[in-house]
Design brief:
The chain is of the alpha+beta class. 21% of the residues lie in helices and 37% in strands.
Length: 183
Amino acid sequence: MKPDRWLAGKLAALAIGMFAFGFALAPLYTVMCRLLGVDAGRGQTTAAIVQVDPDPSRLVTVEFVTAATEGAPWVFEPQVTSMQVHPGELATATFHAANRTQREFVAQAVPSISPGSVARYFRKTECFCFTPQRFGPGEGRDMPVRFVVDRALPAYVERLTLAYTFFDVTETAGTGTQRVAGR
């Protein structure tokens, strides 16, 4: 029966490794993008001062989409599904997240911009995606993202989609009760 124990041990180790890798995907994605200097459709995420100079002759529709893993212990959705902005205008969209469980968890939002080829024209000046978000049991909150669509956005682009995927990063964020800065 020794070969059966060996195989069971290998399969258990493989399952544990796959589970750990799943939790590490969101932080690994961020690290790899930074190391490789790839924007990967996430948009510019520096909180740099943005010069606001709206172009009143043009409107761009920004759509908001959210996704969470199946069976996620939270609600995560945009307050509005789209808005029209003038390129160069500072705009704010709000997303709502709520913990549906009686345990604390930490989530990280990973953004992406579609079409990816114009992500460099989308600048977030303030975003809940910059830091992990800690939620107490049953806690919910509105979370803003402030952004500017650059005036240099090509004229043929009339619609952008800002999508967020919310990942549970409780295991990698630690289990302490210290609140995330600003919360």
